[in-house]
Amino acid sequence: MSAGRFRTLVFFATLFFLCPAALAFLPTVAHARMGFAHRAEARQNNARAQNAEQKAARPKEQRNGAGKSMQQNSKMETAPENIRAYTLPPALYQKAVRYSRAQYILYFVGFAWSVTVLLLILGRRVAPQYRDWAERATKRRFLQAAIFTPALLLTIAILELPVNIWRHWISRAYGISVQGWDSWAGDWAKSEILSFVLGIILAWILYAIIRRSPRRWWLYFWLAALPILFFLVFLSPLVIDPMFNKFEPLEKTDPQLVAALEQVVHRAGMHIPPERMFLMKASAKTKAVDAYVTGIGASKRVVVWDTTIKKMTVPETMFVFGHEMGHYVLGHVYKGLIFGAVVAFVLLYLLFRGTRWTLSRSGGRWGIRGAEDWASLPVILLWLAILSFLVSPIANTYSRHDEHQADQYGLEVTHGLFPHSRQVAAQAFEILGEVDLADPNPNPFIKVWLFSHPPLAERVKFALTYNPWAEGKQPEFVK
Hints:
With 479 residues, this protein is mainly α. It has one domain (11-246, 329-465). Helix content is 63%, strand content 3%. It has helices at residues 13-16, 41-57, 69-73, 90-123, 126-137, 141-173, 181-212, 217-240, 250-253, 255-267, 306-311, 314-329, 332-362, 377-414, 421-436, 444-450, 456-465, and strands at residues 247-249, 277-280, 291-294, 301-305. A 4-stranded mixed beta sheet has the order 1-2-4-3. Strand 3 (291-294) and strand 4 (301-305) form a beta hairpin. Helix 7 runs antiparallel to helix 8 (217-240) and helix 12 crosses helix 15. The chain is elongated and about 70 Å long. The two termini are 38 Å apart. Mean pLDDT is 85; it is low at 1-75.
């Protein structure tokens, strides 16, 4: 799905931080730059040289796609290269640094531009004009929402379009995205249409509640939004995701790989039906590697990108799957929803206070009659953008905790299924960094503010050092 999908979820799903656990094990474009931890430059250079020599000697066929599972199964016993620390070859290292810095600049500039756009809309009294059009057209509140909300959201989307174009241009320039501009424009249009539909419903509910309870609307909207959130999480893999990418049952495309993954499931003592394992044809749009857990209840599933299968061996893919199964088994989706609901409760109260203060000071100057006025929506969106930005470190800290647990689960559940399992896990992270150009040296501020996953250097180190079996201890999750 495009980076701009669900413009209205800046209004809704951002509040609830849609399931940090449902974020991918292998970070996507927004998070894939988050891969390395600080270490001394001399150590980086030494380790980088050692691993570069190892990678040069690595057999090319070892990196072939797992779609040829029969051939890969013969490599199940092949020892992976001896990874000692996360490294990149010098040229790729410099490229990853440039790409990561471009992403960071884009993130903070994008936030500043979003705030500027909303202030511009308020200062130019754009929302009151749209409100007047809607009220002249009809007296029915729902129809007013159907006129006002898409007009406002489309205005915001067009003004923010340069940042979205910049984001896609960077991804293409660094070889991450292979999506053409026509396909990208189609995804952008579909995202906005979805935003209009969802925005109409949410705005209608929000302003109906504000009109009936001006002092408690934040609480009642929180209660009303919870079932909508759960429904969206349920619906997304069934309806929304297929609008942007093609999915196939993994059993249909690669039954041998499914058989290997079922070993992981059996090792965990779990039952994940093959019909809940899907292949996403990501290669039509990106070179990045990824996998994730999504959905709840009957829609819950594990999705592996075809790029991941092509670039990793069967044991490496088994570890990736083990990580994702960790999210599945450890209940991260439901826990993430609960965490998001708690955060949303606090944010909505702060949003209520901030909106009330802002309208009392500047509402008249901006042509806004009060909180119940449709034209107050840009003020609500402004405070939502600011609060969401400020709470990002909390949400990402929670997400990193879940991702670390999933890493640990993946190591435990694959232990003994193939030789050198810890080296295999470290190699999977190496491939992630090579393909996704993960940041070689993020500073602590960037890690805390932006990283939804632990830096790759930390993940590699943990994979290489986590060995409770050698110490005669029981693993924590997979006994």
